[in-house]
Here is the input.
Amino acid sequence: MSHKKPTLGNQFSGLFDQIKVRFDDKPTSEEKPEHGQKRKDKTREKNPRGKVKARSSVKRKPSKPKKRNYVEVKAPDTSCYDVPRRPSGSSTSKNLSPVDLPPLHEISADVENLDIHLPNSNAIASPSINPNDGMTARDGEPAIIGLDFGTAFTKAIIHWRNRHYIVDWKDIIDAKDPHLLPSSFSEHTSGSTLLGDVDEAGWTSKKGLKISIIENTADNKASDIDATIFIALVTRYIRGWAEKKFKDMGAEKLRWRLHVGLPASPFQSEKKQDRLMRIASHGWSIGLNQGIITRESVTDATAGPSPDSHIPIKVVPEFLAQLYPYLKSSKSQEGLHGLIDIGAGTVDFVIFNIVRIDNSDKIPIFGDNVSPLGSHYLIGALAGRRGQTIPWHDSDASKSFAFFSERTGEPREEISLRTRIFDQHVKKALGHALKSARSLFTNSPVWRRQNEFPFFLCGGGSHITFYKHSIKNRKSLSIAYRNIPLPKNIVGDINPKSFHRYSVAYGLSILPRNLAAITPKRDIDPVLPPDPIETEDRDASR
Here is the structure.
């Protein structure tokens, strides 16, 4: 009887089948269980030999997710806004695109006709304020008037004997802050004019005097006369105030200079510079004359060419004057900066570089924009069309949605929506200046968040929380607010934290040749990153 010789396949077939089952039971990518779920047992079909029927006995323990350390980032406190949540189902996006952004005049109250009361605007003086003509002389001591003719308030500082005196207006205005003069005047039906507001029959208040200069409207004859009347009244009062104050300090004769400011964007227009120069020259000359200043006398005086004012008059960019205390302080540094001056009527955005060459400062303007987005326009957006006939106060720009909802009867959601639209207009105006700056100075480290982007927030509206959050809320930039330091040679009872409101007038009282040299945006070539250096590959010839 013959026996078959056993083979290795016959002897170890069982072992081979078990090993094969182990490998075949591994789940495919489609069969892998979800994270945290246990693997289910799966019955395998018979192998080709038909001898083994086994279940998968290998159950893998699900891996635990790696523990990560997170830093809790707190959202900014916006409780001061009293902002309600957007109602569900609203089709309005929180961040509107520029295409969908409606113009402010379509959703806001008409600011030019909106009744907004300033904190100090009541006239208390007679129009017969005539300085002593004998003290104004070409051989007198130099006295420089820095006149910050603002859209809502006017400030003046006189540089005399190496000191800077803040002019107070308490002799003609019933003022809580005597150093702030409302940029308005009142006109009587008889023709006489007064600084401030007169709430009596026969008097009309004239406001918005500087907006027309900035916008440079086509029909500007009437607005030029209004601005000239204001400058004449203001400069006449300043001369009388200074002569009285300085005479007690030993002054006998004064040789005057007048410097007026213009925002950075309109300053780069020679047409707007010439217009303000003409208004200032006429205003100074009319203010030198004795008697009451009337519309008729101003109209006759301005019919001809600009008169010989007998004193130097200069138009200076406001932001350059504003920077003077910072540039002369130990805190100043080179590099890209931003300055935003928030007034009642306009917001002036300037992006500039500080370069020091041979101990002198050079200021090229890389981006600028001036827009009617000031605190009174914010009130107009919050008030809406329903608030057109309601009287408001200058300080209402800081009030909550609940305040405006109660006064206008509108739901908070509607007020919140208009505020978001206004916020997008502010971001758009700042973005315009930043885009221009980035195209001209592409290799600045602030664009890559390698350095902080120092910003100066100035003006009467700079304390409003809305603007602080709207400007700083840019994820691509590391914006850090800076303060303009208080000079030691200033004379006047002001709060150091409020000096930024007077910094323009202070810088304007400096001789222009002592200010930094400015380069307009139109004269700047783009500062591009250096071309890459081509190096030869040393292994190329091997």
